[in-house]
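Retro notes (design track)

What went well: tokenization of the new backbones is finally stable.
What didn't: we kept losing track of which sequence belonged to which structure.
Fix going forward: every design gets posted as structure first, then sequence, in one message. First example under the new rule, 220 residues:
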């Protein structure tokens, strides 16, 4: 909730302006696990009950960045064969970096903000579980990476190559809010981390140990 308030996720508006475009929101609590099933963190999000959204009305296309299995396997295979550095960068509250293009209204539950029960909120940003949230975030990320000079693969839209003038080619694989960064030397990986941290609030996860349910083991 602090992140939502800081970013200005929604604006206050009168109750009678919601019309037929209201979507009820609620809190969801979850536990994240690694590839071995061990608990890694507790998660809490303020999310949309997306089943109340209407196709063509409150959302259009729905998708989120996700690489092909063959692309993921190929990148890790090349990295292993050439002893590359492979790191993970997690974008915090990723969807809140994208602006919402559709008119929607929310009513926070009284357990979250009792004083606002007589008012509605109009979301400015793509909250989690809005049907279009993944697409909006993916579009925002693509724009920022291209602005950085990264080139998207013609084979897989979730694979980018960023050419650093000193360190050479850095490869970035996207999976929703996780960015897998692969390069021959650590300096190249760190250069990309500095660039992406200037665009988003990120968490440096260091070397990859698990990705999309796969356990990654570094070998000498």
């Amino acid at each position: 909730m602090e992140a939502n308030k800081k970013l200005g996720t929604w604006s206050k508006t009168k109750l009678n302006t919601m019309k037929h475009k209201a979507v009820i929101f609620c809190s969801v609590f979850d536990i994240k696990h690694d590839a071995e099933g061990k608990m890694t963190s507790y998660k809490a999000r303020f999310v949309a009950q997306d089943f109340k959204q209407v196709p063509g009305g409150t959302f259009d296309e729905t998708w989120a960045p996700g690489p092909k299995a063959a692309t993921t396997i190929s990148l890790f295979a090349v990295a292993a064969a050439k002893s590359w550095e492979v790191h993970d960068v997690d974008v915090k509250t990723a969807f809140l970096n994208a602006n919402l293009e559709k008119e929607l209204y929310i009513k926070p539950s009284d357990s979250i903000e009792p004083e606002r029960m007589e008012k509605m909120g109009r979301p400015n940003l793509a909250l989690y579980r809005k049907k279009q949230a993944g697409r909006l975030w993916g579009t925002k990320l693509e724009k920022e990476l291209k602005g950085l000079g990264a080139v998207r693969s013609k084979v897989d839209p979730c694979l980018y190559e960023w050419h650093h003038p000193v360190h050479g080619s850095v490869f970035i694989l996207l999976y929703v809010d996780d960015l897998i960064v692969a390069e021959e030397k650590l300096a190249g990986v760190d250069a990309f981390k500095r660039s992406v941290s200037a665009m988003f609030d990120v968490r440096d996860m260091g070397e990859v140990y698990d990705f999309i349910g796969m356990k990654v083991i570094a070998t000498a």
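Added context from the reviewer: Helices lie at 2-7, 69-82, 133-148, 186-197.
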